[in-house]
Amino acid sequence: GDSVTQMEGPVTLSEEAFLTINCTYTATGYPSLFWYVQYPGEGLQLLLKATKADDKGSNKGFEATYRKETTSFHLEKGSVQVSDSAVYFCALLANAGGTSYGKLTFGQGTILTVHP
Amino acid sequence: DTGVSQNPRHKITKRGQNVTFRCDPISEHNRLYWYRQTLGQGPEFLTYFQNEAQLEKSRLLSDRFSAERPKGSFSTLEIQRTEQGDSAMYLCASSLAWEEDQPQHFGDGTRLSIL
């Protein structure tokens, strides 16, 4: 079945450091890929997405590139801020023959803490 | 866009009691999803609706769980005879079936604690 694997956390960085959170996936067909962020006490918010190979999703300084050859969708940010402290989830939406199967499959999440 | 609304935010109940949660999706969204999230894990899919039709149910959804979306708008998730293992955050999301990539918009969840 479909699965998403994220790098083990938690990740602790100083402000302005470079961030990478690794995400790899297993899926049949050509899934759409997402990063969601969850701040304390809140629901998940869509951070960015990519629908096909080599697409780059970007938002709020975060980027991720859909790499079909390595089945990866790593999240990066060049300079993190304290306000980026949250839990980050990688997810896929399976697709087959143009038909989307509605459920998202999530990774286990990576806790990011950024210190001043 | 008022977002996805879930009620209640927190529910504490004794084992064996029944509980019901409500989700109000974004008004024009025709798809509605339920997920369960336990501490330190990512959300796990439970079920989803397109309009009033329940299109898929996970094996996680035991016969004690039932979800409805009677008029294709709000949805309810009921858990009967609750057990300790039902303690979790229950998340609702909605999307447009015909929107590219169908990004799902999540509510803040209902946290269930079983005593």
Task: Summarize the structure in words.
The complex is a heterodimer of chains A (116) and B (115). Chain A starts with a strand and ends with a strand. Chain A is built from no helices and 12 strands. With 116 residues, chain A is mainly β. Chain B is mainly beta. Helix content of chain B is 0%, strand content 49%. Chain B contains no helices and 11 strands. Chain B has strands spanning 5-7, 10-13, 19-24, 31-37, 44-50, 53-57, 65-68, 75-79, 88-95, 105-106, 110-114. In chain B, the strands form 2 sheets. In chain B, strands 2, 4, 5, 6, 9, 10 and 11 form a 7-stranded mixed β-sheet that branches. Chain B has a 4-stranded antiparallel β-sheet with strand order 1-3-8-7, with no helix packed on it. In chain B, a hairpin with a 6-residue loop joins strand 7 (65-68) and strand 8 (75-79). The model of chain B has no long low-confidence stretch (mean pLDDT 92). Chains A and B meet through strand 5, strand 6, strand 10 and strand 11 of A and strand 4, strand 5, strand 9 and strand 10 of B.
Key features of this structure:
heterodimer; A: 116 residues; mainly beta; six-stranded mixed sheet; four-stranded antiparallel sheet; globular; B: 115 residues; seven-stranded mixed sheet; 0% helix
